[in-house]
Amino acid sequence: MTKALCLISAIALAGCASTAMKQYVGESVTEAVMRLGPPENAFDLPDGRRAFQWHWGGGAVVVPGHTAATVAPVGSVAVVNATSTPAYVAESDGCLVTLIAKPVGNDYRVEEYRIPKRLVC
């Protein structure tokens, strides 16, 4: 059950970056800078657009341990069988998310976003 909970959490976290970046499509890249801070990287693309990258996510979470026990009577004695899963720390380095924008006057308008195709961003 603990592994299933971790998998569900990881899938939910992966969706967060996609949802957050989608809101910037059609907006000035200045909106993203005001909310996310300055990008870690910015570079020109061959087609005249510009890519802006931010570090997204990362950190650690403690996944609690779990113990299950069964009791079986054997004559006048109760036999207890316990199975434990230890707690552990799940860590993620995060990832770089990219907004791709075209120049509009002195600004850039976001046309698309890209996030890595992996389970946890």
TrEMBL record:
Organism: Novosphingobium aromaticivorans (strain ATCC 700278 / DSM 12444 / CCUG 56034 / CIP 105152 / NBRC 16084 / F199)
Position of the signal peptide: 1-22
Protein's UniProt keywords contain Signal: yes
Keywords in alphabetical order: Signal
Protein known as: Lipoprotein
Record carries keyword Signal: yes
